[in-house]
Amino acid sequence: MDAVYRLSFAILADEADARDAAQETFVAAWRQIGKLRDPDRFDAWLQRVAVNAARMTHRARRRRGVREIASSRVAGVDGFRATDGSPDADAMTLDAAMRHLTVEQRSILVLHHLEGHPMAALAEILAIPVGTVKSRLHTARQALQAAIDAEARDR
Amino acid sequence: MTTSTPRAPWDDERLAAAFAARAARAVPPVDLASSANAALRARPGSEVIWRRLIVRAAVVILAVGAVSGGIALLGAQRGSSGPGQPMDSPSANPSASPSPFDPWAGREAMGLPVISVSDAIAIRDGGVDDREIAVHGWFWPVGAIPCTLPPPQPLEPVCLDHYIVLMAEPEKLGTGGSTGYHGDEPTGPSFQIDLDDLDSAWQPALPPSQPVEIAVVGHFDDRLSTSCSAEQQNACRDRFVVDRVDLVNGSRQPTSVVDYVEGAGKPFDEAQAVIDVVRPGVTVLSATHGIGGFDPPRIEPSFFYHSLGLKQEAMWIVSVLDHGAVATYVFIDSTADLYDITRGRSELMAPALPPEPTRDPTPSWGPWPPENAFSVLEFKDDMGRKAFVAVVDESGLLEWVQEGVPDSAIGGGATDGFFRDPSGAHRYRLRWTTTICDLQMTVSIGHDVARIIVEHAPRNGCDTMAVGRELVLQFTEDVHPADVELKVIEATLLPGPPPEPTTTVVTLERSDSTESILVIDHAASLMGARAANPVPLIPDFSGVRIIRADDGGTVVLWNGTLCDRDLSISIEAHDVGHPDRIVVHGTRLEPCRMALVRRAIWLDLGPVDVASIVGQLDVGPRSDAQRDPERQARPGTSGVGRLVGDAAVGHRQ
């Protein structure tokens, strides 16, 4: 359950949206677990459900503009002083950069760089050909690098 | 001056470390499981799902019990006087013949004659016959399930699917208790029915007190039966797939519409409208909204083997009655295309024909921007005033749109209309005249670009000044401007004069400086403003955040620099009294080498929904002439101190 939430949060970068997406994932998975033919593929199947849920959550929320943020999140960063170049500092940069990407781009990056899935697994999870995975991943990496560079310039 | 150490390139290793560190900051909510459970129970159709889950669980219990000899097997009580006894015992004898007086004689459901369970069984046993029939009978909701059996082909009955039946007589089947579910097979004629993915609102709460009298429309010998395993082929053929529950205890039921996407995507009305155009005269039996490549195989079994290359997007799966047979159509939300799954399964029947825009000449203004807006453009005039244009594309032909710079060589200069733009293939200009008081507009492009409608938001009256608006529209196909009907709907003037903005000065004091921020209320909703309590810097954020304070106030947060000058907050509203946008204006002296600073203003806007207010940061380098003239009279900055500050609301000017 935590893994699904973390995957949703990694894609959506928003506590409330991640919570909604994780909830949607559980509901959909609970409803459809009977259709899972190969139990060995449960993880991939569940991640596919989670990515779909994240996409739909993002789609439903994206027009709402600024949304309320959890006060814990605002307060929690007060004492956060990351060293430049450290993973924590990079995480902050990455977090900001990811917000400039589409949810599809975020999804494929998260699945590849966070979850560590190879191309073939990405193809299965995203239900697209391997060639398309390569193309999309390449495009997403370019977009992410551009966003990171922009963030670096703004600092 | 700041310095920085050289960074390693963002290679895979660094990226993975950053992703891991970022993910480590995600703390799952403690109540996630309970909220997911609550959501599952609240879903449409969830009663069926839960019922099936519970029944599956019961089967497991019963199976284990059968092995140990401790629990009665299903059907063990058949023929007893227990719960399997028919109500009023009119046909406890399985051989009992139907009453000579049939109150259903001559009745119809969805235009089909209603027949008895016995007659339906005769059809079932008469050979392969998948025609749509209407059957009257009795239904007993089963209790309980998780079925851990391997997933079957969608039609294969598993677990207590065997006990979801339509009966000729009103028999009570099964009881639930602490030891599990005890089921009985009906003693009279019956057959299995498949109610998956139909709205279950008609079913009685569990445990039921008596059977429900229903008339259903459906078919035997579903086309997917051939895909069942060899040993299950007959079971699949004999299963009656219900496409519609038409009558329940004598009451006509609405079309079952189950929306698993819940609000996202297109409403069912649009799918219905397209079907009405493409297949006039057919009757919709049921509809389900699901996600492509995910829900469809469960909702419509044929997708199990024919993916159609469906993308992960929302679509309506609609069963219709077409000349006595059931047909399934798929309506893809994003394309508005309609597929006929029944005939050839992968055949694209025709590009769907969305209904002609039937907009009334009177303004039909609703929530803005429209949910289906292709794009929302921001226009600025020389006075710094902004107007917003939402573009809705119903044609599916729009590639991009942007604000146009008036070009007298196109379309005769100031003439309003829709013109071809020679700067690119399939490129056009749309030009209309409006006023500076109209700040929200919607441009709707109809099917085949046959009609373009420009609507203006209702507004208060004001001293208007005409202003031309222009869009550059890039389509994917050629459009003939002469064939395009352009309709401009003027704004409805709301009663009463527009509210005059109020101004309030809030002072932020820092250790080495003081700055005043002007709060301008255009929404007639501000009742107080002051500096907010100290808040930490929001990392990696360049916009405006609006949050609810513990005391009920509204806090506006943003990151800036000490190079920012002439800061003001503009509270804007489409409807007076209901702020929907807060914009932070300001000028940034460039180049700026100052550190980021946080700013936070507390506002009393009453009980507003902060999530519905859009925040916008408008701080950047600009000349004095571009500044909002309202800020020209703002106080300067001075002084030294700490963060302070209440300020009274200013008077209307």
Overall description:
The complex is a heterodimer of chains A (155) and B (653). Chain A has 8 helices and no strands. Chain A has 155 residues and is mainly α. In chain A, α3 crosses α7 and α7 packs across α8. Chain A is globular, with a radius of gyration of 16 Å. About 14% of the residues of chain A have low confidence. Chain B has 653 residues and is mainly beta. The radius of gyration of chain B is 33 Å and the shape is elongated. At the A-B interface, α1, α2, α3, α4 and α5 of A face α1, α2 and β31 of B.
Q: Which keywords apply here?
A:
heterodimer, A: 155 residues, mainly alpha, 0% strand, B: 653 residues, mainly beta, 6-stranded mixed sheet, 5-stranded mixed beta barrel, 7 helices, 34% strand, disordered N terminus, disordered C terminus
For the biggest sheet of chain B, the summary is: 6 strands, mixed
Q: What pattern of helices and strands is seen along the backbone of chain A?
A: HHHHHHHH
The largest chain-to-chain contact, stated as pair and per-chain residue counts, equals: A-B, 67 and 72 residues
Biggest β-sheet description of chain A: none
| Strand residues, percent of chain A | under 5%
Low-confidence sequence ranges of chain A: 62-82
For the biggest β-sheet of chain B, the strand order reads 11-12-13-14-15-16
Determine the strand fraction of chain B and express it as a percent band: 25-35%
Uncertain ranges of chain B: 1-6, 43-100, 344-348, 350-363, 623-653
Instruction: Give the rounded overall mean pLDDT of chain A.
Output: 74
For the record, give the distance between the C-alpha atoms at the N and C termini of chain A, rounded to a whole number.
Answer: 36 Å
Shape field of chain A: globular
